[in-house]
Design a protein that fits this description.
Shape: globular
Strand order of the largest sheet: 1-2-3-4-5-6-7-8
Distance between the termini: 27 Å
Largest sheet: 8 strands, parallel, barrel
Oligomer: single chain
Bound molecules: 2-phosphoglycolic acid
């Protein structure tokens, strides 16, 4: 059996704002980013904070964060490095803009046809350019028999197949139950903790027990300033992928400060 994750070394919390296809203009994107940056100007905030914005805003936002106090993330990347792939953007190009991490396999992309194999191929591409990959896993619905664990296991094992052990510190797993995304129905802290243990069990099975402390497991799905503390405390997650609440600078920064305070205890 896995020992409680509390016994293991605590990771610095990671909070990523997933802006999705928002806001509608560069001016608004910059305004939102600057508002978050100003609220987090304190140097002692011990949280890794990132904003995953639409591609077209990334280079402007990177310029607004030269110190990388707030890191820049992308929401997807191509499998290929270069060539005739209309509409695609490579991990290498994103890295060149100053992007530090890339979300892969978000359920909204999986709903648009992205399979586990595609996510794995993208993961290989992202890790090979030396940046962090945030791989999303999550079930559509929960059943009383726990069959959803099998879905998470398939998604996870397929991704882990392309990861080398020394790349694990650059792998983040975001557990995002689809039924919790944008619905206001957050997973309970107990559900989140149980899933974190399950993910650890699979990581340990593939890479050995020592690997478990290297991979951050974050939670996403209707995270807000009201439920963040409980998810960190009882759910024991290493941070959050925040959608809707990341579009409100005050709410997002509250979540970051909650993660900071939690990490200090
Ligand atoms: P939500 O989205 O916080 O609006 O539920 C999370 C996500 O899709 O990453």
């Amino acid at each position: 059996m896995l020992q409680s994750t509390r016994m293991q070394k605590k990771q610095q919390p990671l909070v990523i704002g997933n802006w999705k296809m928002n806001p509608t203009s560069l001016a608004e994107a910059k305004k939102l980013f600057v508002a978050v940056r100003s609220a987090l100007v304190r140097k002692d905030i011990k949280v890794l904070v990132a904003v995953a914005a639409p591609y077209i805003y990334l280079s402007d936002l990177a310029r607004l964060s030269p110190s990388k106090r707030i890191e820049i993330s992308a929401q997807d990347a191509a499998i290929e490095k270069i060539g005739p792939h209309t509409g695609e953007v490579s991990a290498h190009m994103l890295k060149g803009l100053g992007v530090s991490s890339i979300i892969l396999g978000h359920s909204e992309r999986r709903a648009a046809g992205e399979t586990n194999d595609i996510v794995a191929a993208k993961l290989l591409a992202v890790l090979s350019v030396g940046i962090t990959a945030v791989v999303c896993v999550g079930e559509k619905e929960r059943d009383v028999h726990g069959n959803f664990f099998g879905i998470i296991e398939d998604q996870l094992r397929s991704a882990l197949e392309v990861v080398k052990k020394n790349q694990l510190p650059r792998l983040v797993i975001a557990y995002e139950p689809i039924w919790a995304i944008g619905t206001g129905n957050t997973a309970t802290a107990e559900d989140a903790q149980e899933m974190k243990l399950f993910i650890h069990k699979i990581v340990a099975d593939v890479f050995g027990r020592s690997a478990v402390s290297k991979v951050r497991i974050i939670y996403g799905g209707s995270v807000n300033a009201k439920n963040a503390e409980e998810l960190l405390e009882k759910g024991d997650v290493d941070g959050f992928l925040v959608g809707g609440a990341s579009l409100k600078a005050t709410e997002f920064t509250k979540i970051v400060l909650i993660a900071h305070n939690h990490g200090q205890r």
